[in-house]
Specification:
Order of helices and strands: EEHHHEEEHEHEEH
Strand order of the largest sheet: 1-2-3-4-5-6-8-7
Low-confidence stretches: none
CATH topology: Aminopeptidase
Number of helices: 6
Length: 190
């Protein structure tokens, strides 16, 4: 079963489970034009963001998910969020998701946090496979997943509607037996 309430740390960040008191940070992120450009949800008011907070809470209660806020160790600056959904213990798999404020893009923050979450999923939860579903045009997330060793498995063409238009979603996956450039060296060093 999912271990609840874990605070995780990386070299530069700490990851704290999302709480209701984080609603202001979540709203700021999920209303930011650069973040929601390729993200599945967005909110226009703090009140609307309660829907997302309920989603986090309900998934955690169900044991199928855990999400963390990302803060820098040296300043406690809020950077974004990362987590997993759809944990399936029978099939030993989960889906990873993340978002980060643009001022932290390209600085290795999300790579560091994603390594920590994948390690957590493999070691603590016992999954064999981690999946990521990414809008086909989200080149930054695709680049990150490729660096981590996630393998492209295909694209579901026109599978969702966003802002009144069909979008295509690509599937990436990492399995324990893959040889990812960053992930395997990270896992071996722990």
């Amino acid at each position: 079963m999912v271990k609840k309430g874990n605070i995780l740390e990386t070299k530069r960040c700490f990851l704290k489970p999302v709480e209701n008191s984080d609603i202001g940070h979540i709203f700021r992120g999920l209303s930011h034009p650069e973040i929601i450009k390729y993200y599945g949800v967005n909110y226009h008011t703090l009140e609307e963001t309660n829907e997302q907070m309920n989603w986090y809470s309900n998934l955690e209660k169900s044991g199928s998910s855990q999400w963390w806020i990302i803060r820098l160790n040296d300043s406690s600056t809020f950077c974004g969020a990362i987590g997993y959904n759809d944990l399936n213990l029978e099939h030993k798999k989960a889906e990873i998701g993340f978002w980060l404020f643009p001022e932290f893009w390209g600085k290795g923050v999300m790579k560091e946090c994603a390594l920590k979450i994948t390690d957590y999923l493999f070691r603590e939860i016992g999954v064999h496979r981690i999946e990521a579903f990414v809008e086909e045009r989200n080149k930054n997330s695709i680049r990150l997943l490729s660096k981590l060793g996630f393998k492209y498995e295909g694209t579901m063409d026109d599978c969702e509607v966003k802002n009144g238009e069909f979008i295509s979603v690509s599937i990436y996956a990492y399995k324990k037996n893959y040889r990812g450039q960053y992930l395997n060296s990270y896992l071996q060093s722990q």
